[in-house]
Amino acid sequence: MEKLEDAWLLGGRFLLGLYFILPGVSKITNYAGTVEYMSAHEVPMISVLLPLTVLLQIGLGIALIIGYKGKVSAFLLAGLTLVISIYMHNFWAMEEGTARAHETQNFVKNMAIMAGLLIVSALGTAKLSTKP
User: Fold this and answer.
1) Cα dist. 55→20, 60, 79, 80 in Å?
2) pTM of the model
3) Would you say 21 and 57 are in contact if contact means Cβ atoms under 8 Å apart?
């Protein structure tokens, strides 16, 4: 049973890591569009925060998948998820309608992802990792 649990944890880490790696890469390939989107959400210091976000999403996503410093990586990604959610999915500042419902859904989804990351940061990455 323990080997099966380790495999599920590895699968979960893979999916969580992929959730950050793909958007990180997409921010590189659509850099101008991402700057525009962040500007529309009044994110400060975009010239610093966008490259930092890309670095964190890709680097920590990979670290989470391979289990290198998994607890720390998951905790930092949880914090990043919270910050991104507050700035980019601020449904509370929108008028009622489809856009608000969509942003509410994204915010709640991100909180669920954050919950998974906090679980990994508390319990570790199990045996199938480089360093729990």
Assistant:
1) 10, 8, 14, 12
2) 0.90
3) yes
